[in-house]
Hints:
This protein is 29% helix and 19% strand. The chain has one domain: 3-Layer(aba) Sandwich (Oxidized Rhodanese, domain 1), CATH 3.40.250.10. By secondary structure, the chain is of the alpha/beta class. The protein contains four helices and six strands; from the N terminus they run ββαβαββαβα. It is globular and about 35 Å long.
Amino acid sequence: MMAFLMGLKSISPAELRAQVEAERVNVYDVNSAQSWRKAHVPGARHLDPATFSAADLPADRTASLVFYCGNPMCRKAPTAAKRAKQMGYEDVKVMSAGITGWVGSNLPTETG
């Protein structure tokens, strides 16, 4: 079931883990660098939600992108996802649970 947040598709931590394991998704953590170093979704790249450009994203505008931030109240991931859509990316989602929801689901994290 696909939920919508601020006009954006939302994905659960469990759904994202399945996509990460199938290597069918590009995951972006838009939390602070300090938060990203402490714990992030395995394979996630750190992006500054306010300054990233299309050069930071895949060249393929049909690639699947998922953005997340800290928790459901955080607005950085929806803001970053909207920017990616404005850049012409078609398959953009937000893991609205954020890293707290990922950790709360007892899913593995990486440090960096």
